[in-house]
Design brief:
With 203 residues, the chain is an alpha+beta fold. It has one domain: Pnp Oxidase, Chain A. Helices cover 33% and strands 34% of the residues. It is built from seven helices and eight strands, in the order βαββββαβαβααβαα. Strands 1, 2, 3, 4, 5, 6, 7 and 8 form an eight-stranded antiparallel sheet that branches. A hairpin with a 2-residue loop joins β2 and β3. α6 packs antiparallel against α7.
């Protein structure tokens, strides 16, 4: 990932925060025929381990090169930046649009999980993670055990053993403080989460 110094994010807690905020990571793995790319939820078991599952029919788990590195791509808030938000526009007119975003690339080696008990643990953990904020969260144990057992036969677990995390937080840090304030204000209505993330870079 191209990371200019102004946008580099190396703090472990911030990298994990971006990863947790991402709704649907992308897993990319090399194969003999090219790249395998799968959009999939991932549970962050720690900075060095990501866990998820794919359909058994998905060739990703069969075709990836086991000793090569895969990468999971996480993107949190992102959005268009209008030149009209920069006070500099009124002063010089020398402004152009851009796109701000927060991203983390987690690189590591994939492990395939096919044990039924381990698969049950994976889907139970992922389900609990995404149901946790609901008034009446659904649990895997709510469904009949034989039904779940049959469903598990249709998936394969994947664990990415992470060896490197790199983060990029591009939130107009390369602009003047006046223009950065203009971006945060301009985003407030159409992208409040990114506006708040931008304001945090002022601290």
């Amino acid at each position: 990932m191209y990371i200019p110094p102004a946008f580099a994010e190396n703090r472990p807690e911030q990298l994990l925060a971006i990863m947790r905020a991402a709704s649907l990571p992308i897993l990319v793995s090399p194969t003999a025929a090219g790249l395998a790319i799968t959009h999939m939820p991932l549970h962050i078991a720690g900075p060095d381990r990501l866990i998820g599952h794919v359909a058994r029919a998905n060739p990703h788990w069969q075709d990836f090169l086991p000793h090569a590195q895969s990468v999971a791509i996480f993107t949190a808030g992102d959005g268009y930046v209008s030149p009209s938000w920069y006070p500099t526009k009124a002063e010089t007119g020398k402004v152009v649009p851009t796109w701000n975003y927060q991203a983390v690339h987690a690189t590591g080696v994939l492990e395939v999980i096919d044990d039924p008990a381990a698969l049950l643990a994976i889907v139970t953990t992922l389900t609990a993670q995404h149901e946790s904020g609901r008034t009446k969260p659904w649990a895997v144990s709510d469904a009949p055990a034989d039904y779940i057992a049959a469903q598990l036969k249709g998936i394969i677990g994947l664990v990415l053993h992470v060896t490197n995390l790199e983060g990029k937080v591009k939130l107009s840090q390369n602009k003047s403080m006046t223009d950065r304030l203009g971006v945060a204000d301009g985003m407030t209505k159409e992208n409040p989460a990114l506006a708040e993330a931008t304001r945090k870079t002022f601290r």
